[in-house]
Specification:
By secondary structure, the chain is mainly α. The strands form four sheets. Strands 8-9-10-7-11 form a five-stranded parallel beta sheet, with helices on both faces. Helix 9 packs antiparallel against helix 10, helix 16 packs parallel to helix 19 and helix 26 runs parallel beside helix 29. The chain has 44 helices and 14 strands.
């Protein structure tokens, strides 16, 4: 293709004489933006526009010589000045003075730039693009996307910016076309990777900037369809057809028309990348099986039976095998061993999950499906919310693949049904303590204890043949005392192997003694508890105490600092004890600094605590210290995020110190990492003596209410505490729990419930003169009134909140109420005072060094400035707020700020940017904020799309918004109806 007129980047030059790669190794040139040169990182003067035009013309010839006549034509075209030749020589002379010797050379009456290949940013971009193409062809799409992004990142605005001349103009057009091709390639790969929702925002802006570029329209239709927005995708086609007919008098290209038909048919293949025939090329190949034990022993008949069953998965029926047996019988060990042997039958991967069915809080199927989908390569943005949708996507992802799924420790058939692949070529292995008789089509296997021979063989492999052969009878006594239970045998043998001075007979005698103490227990539990009793009985007193007390804490695991609080010991001493328990197999090391119990061991540890902990009150003290630790630490997280906020001064006092933070990011990391354990602690602290601290811990951790991942659990715990406080007659605790529920409902968009809880919190707090909840309740009720257009009532509540916060000397609370009052002044026509109130609130936050709440102040100020027509300042204020919200992981406010920025752009008639911001807001608010906020975002998105001429898509957004507001009974419905009038859409 012609180098100077074709749409692609110039071909790479052949090696030339003179060894240019040895010249100017520290020299760099840029043409993908302003024409510039650097030497050793320092910018060089590039001279006048015409001098830059000369340099650009030489650089784009990639080492070839340009004659003087060609350069004159490149710079001035058909109308060169009379002294053009002299000017070219002058420009060349000036360039030689700033460039290293040998870079700009004279050749046969012309000039050439000789330097190494990677000195020019265009060459680097081309190399990266070529590498990306090869990687994509090889199936490494992740790295291919990274290379394309790196190539695009080399652009710094318009190529050859401000360079005059016809040659530069031609090259600008060509390079811009190439940049768009790269963008389309990268966006195509984004869709292949499942980043549909994220791509919609960028594609909306690009189609506005390049309305006649049909490939971008095609990608936008596909992104919308894969995001579940079929009506909008079809509207894009209608808008495109109308635009092409009006502007060019042509119909859409065949590719676009075919895509429209496939969308109308809801073609299932559209859920896959266009260029890939099978999902196996798109998703990753998981290998999640735990390691098999090296000393696996016995069970030969079961291994053959299950192996044969799994082999049938290559046929026409999905194989499901369910192993049942008591705890410790070796279900997991057998299943993992069989799964490893069957791996050749499942080349597309193996999935594994511990469903925690034996515990009080079994794994939720939707959570497991989310984890499986991520392991299979599905990005978070493409994972739906509901259980049914996740299960459907999971089955679709597995279709045509050969995957083995190991579902360990299941509670019942209902838990695992959504997790079964459902297609031929896949198989599932299930372990559970109950028989899955209601699991249709499953091959049921009842796993009993080992035979005496298998049990002795396992014992021998761990202890050593020499010791066992000398005391065979005693060894038989040991395995019999263990009830031939594999877990019991393994623990007993491990204890003996670690004690070289013991004989097998000594161990047998100890087991015999301990078994007599448990003779009233059921047979199955007898073996397990006898084994644990053996391990427990060998612990040092400090280790035994740690084992007992740590088992009391709810939560999936426990951190070292939290464990130190439970034990009331220094961290180093605690770690020594915990690592000793890990060595005895009574505790597991979940990750560095985190520990967990096997569910059976946890139950046994709690039984030991009830039986052996003296005095009994020490159990309550241990959990009280843990609650203190979480409350103290959470209050410090709250304080570092919100300096000056008086909430921390109104919380219940603690006796045990928590962690301290100097960096707010580390504080945030702690809160989100400890979320499950913290909420577990709150849940189990609803009794007398700890209820108030539990409520305050929930209040101090309110960031979890809008995190998305923890919001549902937070709400459930808050409701439980409110009910517990009401049952206990603790009005103060009940009022504070109601405040947390009001906040949950507020951020979730459930304004009726938020209003109800805030009113109840106000009533309860007034009853016991609890001042701060009264402030918070008044502030919340003011905001709820704004949402319902009850402005007079809202103003009364907010003025009351301002006075109450001032009395409590709570500056951040006062600033919050001022910013909220600004909203009422705004909607009631008092624009100047609205801006003033918002500025006052933001200034108060700034004086206190309150970055997070300061962002809320800037948000309010941005909204007020938008209404007052000060769009530039509004945009700056909102952009500053957005940066803080993103940095602080405040997803609700990040999404709402993007929405407000879209409003600013619509007011400024920058519709393409408005549409991009609104699309990003929809993506961020997908799991938080509620339908009311989504409806508002759709309204402004419709306005933006209307502004860029995508009328059909705008109507789709408005109709969805109207449906939301009519369902909620929101007053915003009237505005949307007016937008849908024929005159507005014309």
């Amino acid at each position: 293709m012609d180098r100077e007129n074709g749409p692609r980047v110039p071909e790479q030059r052949a090696p030339s004489t003179g060894g240019p790669d040895s010249v100017g190794q520290d020299l760099r040139f840029g043409v993908l933006g302003p024409v510039r040169a650097w030497r050793a990182g320092e910018a060089l003067p590039s001279g006048s526009p015409q001098q830059r035009a000369l340099l650009a013309a030489l650089l784009l010839r990639d080492g070839r010589t340009a004659t003087a006549a060609e350069l004159i034509d490149a710079i001035w075209g058909d109308e060169p000045p009379s002294q053009a030749l002299a000017a070219v020589r002058t420009y060349a002379s000036r360039l030689r003075k700033i460039l290293p010797p040998g870079v700009l050379v004279s050749v046969s009456g012309g000039y050439a730039v000789r330097t190494h290949h990677s000195a020019l940013d265009l060459n680097v971009a081309a190399d990266l693009a070529a590498e990306a193409e090869k990687l994509r062809a090889a199936g490494d799409r992740g790295e291919a996307r990274a290379r394309i992004n790196k190539s695009l990142g080399l652009w710094d605005g318009e190529a050859l910016a401000s360079v005059p001349g016809p040659y530069a103009e031609t090259q600008r057009v060509r390079l811009e076309e190439w940049r768009l091709q790269l963008l389309e390639t990268r966006l195509d790969m984004d869709l292949e990777a499942g980043a549909h929702a994220e791509a919609v925002s960028e594609l909306t802006a690009l189609t506005a900037a390049h309305p006649l570029r049909e490939r971008l329209r095609e990608l936008l239709m596909l992104a919308l369809y894969r995001s579940g927005r079929q009506a909008e995708a079809l509207a894009v086609y209608a808008d495109t057809r109308r635009l092409l007919a009006d502007e060019l008098g042509v119909d859409p290209c065949p590719e676009l028309a075919r895509l429209q038909q496939r969308i109308l048919r809801a073609d299932a293949e559209l859920a896959r990348p266009v260029e890939e025939p099978a999902p196996a090329l798109v998703v990753s190949r998981p290998a999640q099986l735990p390691a098999t034990v090296p000393d696996f022993t016995g069970r030969a008949a079961f291994v053959r039976e299950l192996g044969d069953r799994l082999a049938t998965a290559e046929g026409s029926v999905m194989a499901v095998s369910a192993l049942a047996g008591i705890g410790g019988v070796g279900k997991t060990t057998l299943a993992v061993h069989v799964a490893h042997e069957a791996r050749p039958h499942f080349p597309d991967g193996q999935l594994y999950v511990d469903l925690q069915g034996a515990g009080a809080r079994a794994a939720a199927p939707e959570t497991v499906l989310g984890s499986f989908l991520r392991a299979l390569g599905t990005p978070d943005s493409a994972i739906p919310d509901s259980l049914d949708d996740r299960a459907a996507l999971y089955r679709s992802t597995l279709d045509g693949r050969r995957i083995l799924v190991l579902l360990d420790n299941a509670r019942d058939a209902a838990q695992i049904r959504p997790l079964l692949p459902g297609t031929a070529g896949c198989a599932a292995l299930v372990t559970s303590r109950i028989r899955m008789v209601d699991l249709a089509g499953a091959h049921l296997v009842d796993l009993d204890v080992m035979s005496p021979e298998e049990a002795l063989q396992l014992f021998t492999r761990i202890v050593g043949a020499e010791r066992v052969s000398a005391e065979r009878e005693a060894a038989l006594d040991v395995v019999a005392a263990c009830g031939f239970l594999p877990l019991a045998i393994r623990i007993a043998a491990s204890r003996l192997a670690a004690r070289r001075t013991w004989t097998v007979a000594v161990l047998a005698a100890k087991l015999a003694d301990e078994r007599r103490r448990l003779d009233e227990l059921q047979a199955g539990d007898l073996a397990v508890k006898a084994t644990f009793e053996l391990g427990y009985g060998q612990l040092e007193p400090a280790q035994a105490r740690a084992f007992r007390l740590l088992g009391l804490a709810d939560g999936p695991d426990i951190s070292l600092p939290a464990a130190a609080a439970v034990l009331d010991l220094p961290a180093q001493d605690t770690e020594d004890l915990l690592e000793a328990l890990v060595d005895t197999s009574l505790l597991e090391s979940a990750a560095p600094g985190r520990y967990r119990y096997h569910d059976l061991v946890r139950l046994y540890a709690r039984a030991c605590a009830e039986r052996d902990e003296q005095p009994p009150v020490e159990r309550e003290r241990a959990l009280s210290r843990l609650l203190d630790f979480y409350l103290s630490t959470a209050s410090r997280v709250y304080a570092i995020e919100r300096p000056g906020d008086r909430l921390v001064d109104h919380l219940e006092p603690t006796e045990y110190e928590g962690l301290a933070f100097t960096d707010r990011h580390a504080a945030q990391d702690w809160l989100y990492a400890e979320a499950n354990c913290l909420l577990g602690c709150v849940r189990q602290s609803a009794g007398a003596g700890t209820l108030r601290r539990a409520v305050d811990l929930l209040w101090a951790s309110l960031d979890l209410a809008e995190s998305g991942a923890n919001s549902k659990e937070y709400e459930a715990v808050a409701a439980g505490l409110r009910d517990a406080a009401a049952a206990a007659g603790d009005t103060r605790a009940e009022g504070r729990a109601a405040i947390t529920l009001a906040y949950v409902h507020h951020v979730s968009g459930r304004f009726d419930q938020a209003d109800q809880e805030a009113r109840e919190a106000m009533r309860l707090a007034e009853t016991v003169d609890d001042r701060l909840p009264q402030c918070w309740a008044a502030n919340t009720l003011g905001v709820m009134a704004v949402y319902r257009n009850r402005y007079a009532e809202g103003e009364q509540f907010l003025n009351r909140a301002i006075d109450a916060f001032r009395e409590c000397q709570d500056g951040p609370g006062e600033a919050s109420a001022l910013c909220n009052l600004s909203r009422i002044h705004l909607v009631t026509g008092r624009t100047a005072s609205a801006v003033s109130l918002a500025r006052q609130g933001a200034d108060m936050y700034d004086r206190m060094g309150h970055a997070l709440k300061g962002a809320n102040g800037r948000y309010a100020m941005g909204v007020a400035l938008t209404q007052s027509g000060q769009l530039g300042e509004a945009s700056e204020s909102l952009a500053a707020a957005l940066e803080v919200f993103r940095d602080s992981r405040q997803r609700l406010w990040e999404g709402m700020t993007l929405f407000r920025l879209a409003e600013v752009e619509v007011a400024g008639r920058r519709f393409a940017q408005a549409a991009s911001n609104a699309e990003m807001a929809l993506t961020v608010l997908r799991d938080v904020g509620g339908d009311w906020r989504r409806g508002n975002v759709l309204t402004v998105l419709g306005r933006a799309l209307h502004g860029i001429g995508q009328l059909g898509r705008a109507e789709v957004c408005w109709r969805e918004s109207l449906a939301i507001h009519e369902r909620l009974g929101s007053p915003e419905a009237a505005e949307v109806r007016s937008l849908l009038q024929p005159a507005a859409a014309a």
